[in-house]
Design a protein that fits this description.
Length: 154
């Protein structure tokens, strides 16, 4: 018996699929956590009146979010690599299974695509934060001028 067949025969199709499913569930939880934090950051910075905040507040929020997002990016990418490995293990175990097991096919999204999507999601949040700052700073600048010009006209 070859070494390759020894390695694949030590895991049954059900065991390989269970491992794949657990990794997939864990990865979905990581994505959910990233999404919840991203929405919370957006809601906090964009969704309320913060015209009195200085630019440094927005810088601090942005830098903190970038640190969180890059850390999340790293963990998601590693988890996706593992999911890809487990998908291959399921495929190998399924090829040695009976006719029903051979019909089982799982595929994992390529790590590069996951990285790109995660990165663009992070950029959307950062641009929204800075867009909110720009909008609020322009609004704060134009409001006193309007009040000043009305006062001078009277």
């Amino acid at each position: 018996m070859s070494e390759s067949s020894d390695r694949t025969s030590d895991v049954s199709l059900k065991e390989a699929f269970d491992i794949y499913q657990k990794q997939s569930d864990s990865l979905h939880k990581l994505w959910a956590y990233f999404q919840v934090v991203s929405i919370a950051v957006l809601g906090y910075t964009v969704g309320s009146e913060k015209a009195h905040w200085s630019v440094w507040t927005y810088v601090l929020i942005s830098m903190s979010y970038v640190f969180f997002a890059l850390s999340s990016h790293y963990v998601v990418a590693i988890s996706q690599k593992e999911l890809t490995r487990f998908a291959k293990a399921v495929h190998e175990a399924a090829s040695k299974a009976g006719p029903i097991g051979q019909q089982l096919s799982v595929k994992a999204v390529k790590v590069r695509r996951v990285r790109l999507f995660h990165f663009f999601s992070m950029l959307v949040v950062i641009f929204a934060i800075w867009g909110a700052w720009f909008d609020k700073s322009i609004g704060a600048r134009s409001s006193p001028a309007v009040v000043q010009s009305k006062t001078n006209c009277d």
